[in-house]
Predict the structure.
Amino acid sequence: MSERQADDNGRSGKSRQGRQFVKFSFYKLDPAFRRLPEENQRAAKLEFLSAIRSFNRRMLLRSYSLVGLRADADFMIWQVAETPERFQELATAILNTGMGPYLHAPHAYLAVTRRSIYDIGAMDGEDAAAERLVIAPGDHRYLFVYPFVKTRAWYALSMEARQAMIDEHIRIGRRYPQIRLNTTYSYGIDDQEFVVAFEGDNPADFVDLVMELRESKASLYTLRDTPTFTCRHLPLAEMLDSLGGPPIAADVALFEGDADGWIDALSLDALPPGDSAQVYIAGQQVALFNVGGTLYALGNRCSHARGPLVEGRVEGDGDACTVVCPWHYARFDLATGQVVDGVATMPVPTYEVAVRDGVIRVRARQPAVERTL
Ligand code: FES
């Protein structure tokens, strides 16, 4: 079984999945857009929405409104993909919509996931270091984003000294379980060293956390941690309506899939027998397998430490197919997601699979009503 990942044309290509690229793109809408005839504004919004939704299977996308919260940006698109090329393709698609000529991009941050060099897992009692390779946003109302640069003096400290300060940082963070941290790395690929994105439901909680962190020893070694963006999570149509002009949210589906919950995932031609592919469904990574003409779909991330199952070795045929996680070799039943062997203790989710008009469709076995772009 080869490892493949769906590309723009619904085909597949070789991919290694340990790390993900992350982009935070901030946009400001030119007021001239709101002086266009209402039908033009509405058509441009729908075109924008359609352009972004066309990327839903290829990358993780989240939309946020900053209208009324920040003067120099109106909205932000949080993007997670396996290659940076996706970000360029999405940006071009956005520029080619009717809104494109009216959009400025005052801020944009590029980063990549990686394992922390510090002992994060021991502090958190879980394999948090592995978790950091995969961005899995929660459903929080707000995202707080800022670029982060440390002083060069930080890097001259011993590892022991740095670890002690990181431990203090983590102890403070654990007093705020309602705030969730996503740290990504930008060394050499963008101006900052990190992009930090905290998820939470109440900005006041985040204020309290940041005030406490200011008193930590590590804070002495912060060179820059601005600008700071408070972003409100909204489905794409609602985010577009927050920009003003004729509303569209009431006329477009907020949920993916048809009335029965089936979602188009990938062209069948792109997944010949013996292949596997990864797609995004409602923001979740799903691994598709074609084993001798029988299709399987299950959550791509191993329940042990989030290894990419799409890259795993498939064994067996008929009703007894398994996939072996490439990281620590836990074995999962492709049909049920249950652990058959190895270090994993929890199953991975599975999806029903069907083919209609040459398109592979999937449906969650336990439908979770999930908002989408
Ligand atoms: S990540 Fe450890 S077995 Fe899969």
Summary: Residues 302, 304-305, 307, 325, 327-328, 330, 342-344 surround FE2/S2 (inorganic) cluster (CB under 6 Å). Confidence is low (pLDDT under 50) at residues 1-16, 367-372. DSSP finds eight helices and 21 strands in the chain. The helical segments are 38-53, 85-95, 120-124, 128-131, 152-156, 159-173, 203-214, 236-241.
